[in-house]
Amino acid sequence: MSDHIPTLADVCSAIAEGRLTAASDGSTYQVNAFELRRHFNKRYSLPTISFLENILSPAHSDSCDSTNLDLCSFGR
User: Fold this and answer.
1) Residue 2 lies in a domain
2) Residues 24 and 12: beta-carbon distance below 8 Å
3) Which site among 4, 56, 57, 63 is 20 to 30 Å from 48 CA-CA?
């Protein structure tokens, strides 16, 4: 098992390289949390990514759709 912990830079690189599907409204990327988890589980063979479990908990579902995360923003 790898001890690499995925970072925001890993996520942004995966989106930029087309390895992770994301929708964009021009300023924010929308990434399906389950696709993100599948991507990192496959790439790093990790049994779980605990930060996703925290984000997807019921306490956070009232503020946004629990399957979509705003992960990367950019401005001009």
Assistant:
1) no
2) no
3) 63
As for how many domains the chain has, the answer is: 1
Confidence of residue 61 (pLDDT cuts 50, 70, 90): very low
Distance CA 1, CA 55 (A): 24
pTM reported for the whole predicted model:
0.45
CA distance 12 to 35: 14
In a domain, 3, yes or no: no
In a domain, 62, yes or no: yes
Q: Which amino acid is at 9?
A: A
Phi and psi, residue 22, nearest 5°: -145, 145
Within a domain: 39: yes
Tell me how far apart the alpha carbons of residues 2 and 58 are, in angstroms, rounded to a whole number.
29
Question: Which of 56, 43, 55 minimizes the C-alpha distance to 4?
Answer: 43
